Amino acid sequence: MILSPSGPRTEGPDEDGFYTTYFEGPSFNGTFGEIRSRVEGSVARVRIATGPGRANPLGALHGGFLLGFLDQAVFVGPATLGRLVMPNWAVTLNFATQFMAPGRADLPLDCVIEVVSETGKLLFLRGQMEQERQALLTFQATLRKIRLGG
């Protein structure tokens, strides 16, 4: 399934101020299911549930899962902040990541995202993934904004 220009389905906010975005269907994005996000000052907090299916053989969160979630979060975060509005979207141009600590598969995973700069076509982001406020991964990312359907 290819997402329509309206994108994934979103509901909220809940009692904690989180909006829920549902990635559905057989595409790669569908493997992430429910992702929650909220604005916290000048940053967005993007949250996903973890579990044994997202762990490596040592029981920590798999690095591939962390990077895959990061590639979802860098879109959900700016959309939550009102910086990406449908039908405008973006593609990932660049990631720089640093793994700092193992993640636990029994706690939710948060990605805190800041928009550092924006031009007509580019978004420059930075942030970190964390559990219980402990940094697991830091990143910088660049997105290229595109306009779908015209």
Automatic annotation (TrEMBL):
CDD domains: PaaI_thioesterase (cd03443)
Gene Ontology molecular function: any one: thiolester hydrolase activity
Thioesterase domain span: 59-136
Domain of life: Bacteria
UniProt xrefs under InterPro entries: HotDog_dom_sf (IPR029069), Thioestr_dom (IPR006683)
Pfam families per the UniProt record, alphabetical: 4HBT
Name used for this protein in its record: PaaI family thioesterase
Organism, scientific name: Sphingomonas chungangi
Native organism taxonomy: Bacteria, Pseudomonadati, Pseudomonadota, Alphaproteobacteria, Sphingomonadales
